[in-house]
Amino acid sequence: MWLYFFGRGEVMDEMKLSDRKKQILKSIIDAYIDSGEPVGSKNLAAYGNISLSPATIRNEMSELESLGYLDKPHTSAGRVPSAQGYKFYVDQLNEDYRLGVEELELLGELTRFKTAQVESVIDRANKIMSGVTKYAAVSLARNENAGTVKRFDAVYIGEHSFLLVMILEDGSAKTSQLASEFTLTENDVRKIKELLNANLCGVVLDKIPLDQMMALEDAFGKHRALVGKILRAAYSVTRGDGTSDVKIDGLTNLLSYPEFSSVEKARSIVELAESRKGDIRKLLEFSEVGEEKGLSPVISDENGMKIFFGEESGDGALADTSLVYCSFPVGNTNAVIGILGPKRMDYKKVVASLKFLARSMGENGEALLPDGSKRIDGDAE
Amino acid sequence: MWLYFFGRGEVMDEMKLSDRKKQILKSIIDAYIDSGEPVGSKNLAAYGNISLSPATIRNEMSELESLGYLDKPHTSAGRVPSAQGYKFYVDQLNEDYRLGVEELELLGELTRFKTAQVESVIDRANKIMSGVTKYAAVSLARNENAGTVKRFDAVYIGEHSFLLVMILEDGSAKTSQLASEFTLTENDVRKIKELLNANLCGVVLDKIPLDQMMALEDAFGKHRALVGKILRAAYSVTRGDGTSDVKIDGLTNLLSYPEFSSVEKARSIVELAESRKGDIRKLLEFSEVGEEKGLSPVISDENGMKIFFGEESGDGALADTSLVYCSFPVGNTNAVIGILGPKRMDYKKVVASLKFLARSMGENGEALLPDGSKRIDGDAE
DNA sequence: TGTTAGCACTCGTAGTGAGTGAGTGCTAAA
DNA sequence: TTTAGCACTCACTCACTACGAGTGCTAACA
Questions:
Q1: Chain-chain contact of A179 with B155 (C-beta, under 8 angstroms)
Q2: Is A177 close to B172, i.e. CB distance below 8 A?
Q3: I need a surface site. Which of A75, A259, B217, B251 has the fewest CB within 10 A?
Q4: Do A181 and B369 make contact, defined as CB atoms within 8 angstroms?
């Protein structure tokens, strides 16, 4: 059973619906997801497996509409599911969807990559998910600001540059290659490392008092100019907008759906991916931040699977989209992967794929410690 | 003067053209770049500063067409520049274009970023270029395969992971966070570093004999499983497709031009950016690789500024685009930045902006050694 | 009382065809 | 050599029509 988070906190109750209404609603949404076009009573009677006349279906449709589950684009068009309708639909999704052979094949790649580098696991998962679902996949590699640098290291590269390594609270390592005006020796670099560890570990960088910073600069001697660069690098790693942790794949997939066939729509979705990664980050982080931007309601089930309906966000780019997402452990931290698709996307398949992903990443607690013999059992539920 | 690289190596000669023809051709292209629509004789007579009657202009146009400088979309439309026409046009571009105040303002940002981290300089430059030109900017951070790893380093992160640092021939540093199944100590990591430096420096990784690799695994002891991971990381860094070095910004800009107003066009250009970075890399690397894919001809001037006409590549996504690009030193290596726009893009402005960029990055030989007092003199030529 | 057939009505869409206007090429006069 | 005039082309716009999928209502039926 899914939980509903509404703006006003109420919990929805569709138990009013008769079984027949449920069946009809479900058929309508299935048909709509399939075709992308408003579905009418006649077609539903003919191709949906409902043994009722179009007229009866019409009556039911009309009631479903007044109950808020369906919308009408215009008088003489068929019906289209409303956000409420979609919510009902995903709630009924418990019946399992069996992933196809090719889908399982692709998802199987995941287990192969569990042994690879930390930073690329999520990347690969993201690409694979976009390939499997044929929608866009969005991922967030680190879902909180890391706060402070736990430990510094510095690697000598050459006379004029070194690599600053910052190990964060969550065990992830960030690096930044820095250049110096003055000649650097290996010894200089070692000293820099020691100074940083002595002075900046666990320090919230925007709260450094000026005198402390000046003292640090003095300790750097002729390399004092580096202090600013280092602080800037550390700051952007701990306090940065984190947009580099947001990855998007499969935009092209998205553009092939009719809901993005106008250039404006396409443009707004490309813009989202190109210059609004911060917003996507907020979306994936869910919770308060999203709430304040009107990015709720969202529904969520007991497996941590969450669904966001873009329609209700008031955001133009997201208007016709939905996002299904969930988080799971990767290394010492958490990753979030979501599928962004048209709001009429194939929820069954998407939910099944994400569940498969979450299970194969999270099953052993620590996804990056390979167990070598991971099986694929071919069933997604 | 620009040099022309043709498929068959011939050098073009437009000296045949009378001054009047040149003037008319130039006006037509200016008008077309401005409006994006075929330009007719009447309009040209009215708004271009040519004191000839439409009829005369028509005669000249007709001759320019048969000489191959102009094309006609259909009988009763105006004329449109052909690839040859564009080539003539950019060749005449010597007359300088003065960048506007806002443009200079934006470009001025470049000098501020000269002091920042190595890896982000090109990123920022790319973003700024797309902002200034209102087209897409593409950049290549490293224009050759690095060959081998010059030196290894390893930074202990925690009990189950460490950061592998690979310093390449060109002085750039690449890192990869690796996880180990068995508990790691700082000492283990130090030993790993020594083993790598003793065995893999300067080694072409795909030519390691099996016995050597087995010996290395033995030396790793219980951490033998790491050898494979390390080799894979090093291989992808030295021999990888290098697509992560290709950055694209301003796709959204591109989508607002009418030549990309069909979804198919938009899709193909998004696809190019999303999953064909390898091709973009080849383009920016120019030379042989491009040649073999039919990615020539290209014209090039004495400042290293190059222009590629997508029309002639036979590549659908590039069909309506041009790419103006040039390379300049960043740190110890070379970067290439290009502007990808509709083939009727504002070459004057783009060339001026790129020249400004190349000059402010390359002027001091070593762009990453700040001189603190870089001036902006407000003239682009 | 629930279900269905019939029918009038709505409304988006595809197709048609006349009108418009920007553009060309040709010819003959200046 | 330049220009005015003229016939012709052709994409584009717009009003109009026909079509058809769909609805809602009413009355008959099981």
A1: no
A2: yes
A3: A75
A4: yes
Chains A, B: CB pairs < 8 Å = 135
CA–CA distance, B140 with B137 (Å, rounded to integer): 10
The Cα of B110 is separated from the nearest Cα of chain A by a number of Å equal to: 16
Q: Buried (b) or exposed (e) across B345-368, using 16+ Cβ within 10 A?
A: bbbbbbbbbbbbbbebbbeeebbb
The C-alpha of A74 sits at a distance from chain B's nearest C-alpha, in angstroms, of 26
Cβ < 7 Å from nucleic strand D: A 38-43, 54-55, 58, 61-62, 65, 72, 75-79; B 51-53, 55-56, 59, 74-77
Find, in chain B, the residue whose alpha carbon is nearest to that of A160: B369
**Bond before B297 cis per omega within 30 degrees:** yes
Residue B190 forms contact with A (CB below 8 Å)? no
- In this prediction, residue A235 carries a pLDDT of 87
CA of B76 to C1' of D11 (A): 8
Q: Name the percent of chain B lying above pLDDT 70.
A: 81
Q: Return the number of other C-beta atoms located less than 10 Å from residue A219's C-beta.
A: 16
Q: Which residue of B has its CA nearest to A368?
A: B179
The shortest C-alpha distance from A267 to chain B (Å) reads 6
B256 touches chain A (CB under 8 A): yes
Stated pTM of the model: 0.86
- Is the pLDDT score of B62 beyond 50? yes
pLDDT by residue for chain A (381 residues), tens only, comes to: 666 665 443 444 445 688 889 999 999 999 999 888 999 999 888 887 788 888 999 999 999 999 999 999 888 888 999 988 988 888 887 666 777 887 888 777 776 655 556 667 888 899 999 999 999 999 998 756 667 899 999 999 988 889 999 998 877 888 998 888 889 999 999 999 999 999 999 888 878 888 988 999 999 999 998 998 899 888 888 877 777 789 999 999 999 998 888 888 899 999 999 999 988 988 888 643 444 455 555 677 767 788 888 877 778 888 889 999 988 887 667 789 999 999 999 998 999 899 888 888 765 444 444 333 333 333 433
CA atoms of B200 and B139, how far apart (whole Å):
30
User: Which residue of chain A has the CA closest to B270?
Assistant: A252
Q: How far apart are alpha carbons A129 and A52 in whole angstroms?
A: 39
| Cβ contact B53:B45 at 8 Å | yes
Helix (H) or strand (E) holding B59: helix B54-66
Judged on CB neighbours under 10 Å (0-12, 13-18, 19+), A304 is middle
Per-residue model confidence as pLDDT tens digits over A160-201: 889 999 998 877 888 998 888 889 999 999 999 999 999 999
Neighbours of A201 (CB within 10 A): 13
Helix, strand, coil percentages in chain A from 3-state DSSP, rounded to 5 = 50, 20, 35
Selecting from B155, B177, B266 the residue whose C-beta is nearest the C-beta of A266 gives B266
Query: How far is Cα B110 from Cα B126, in angstroms, rounded to an integer?
Result: 10
- The Cα–Cα gap between A155 and A164 comes to 7
> What is the pLDDT, as a whole number, of residue A332?
67
Ramachandran area for residue B27 (φ above 0: left; ψ -120 to 50: alpha; else beta): alpha
Mutate to test the interface with B, among A168, A177, A251 (most CBs of B within 10 A): A177
Q: Do A270 and B255 touch (CB under 8 A)?
A: yes
Cα(B310)–Cα(B297) distance, integer angstroms:
9
Strand order in the sheet with A298-301: A2-5, A298-301, A306-309, A321-330, A333-342, A136-140, A246-249
Q: Which two tokens stand for residue A229?
A: 């660069």
Reduced to 3 DSSP states, what percent helix, strand and coil does chain B have, rounded to the nearest 5? 50, 20, 35
Residues in chain B within 8 Å Cβ distance of A119: 176-177
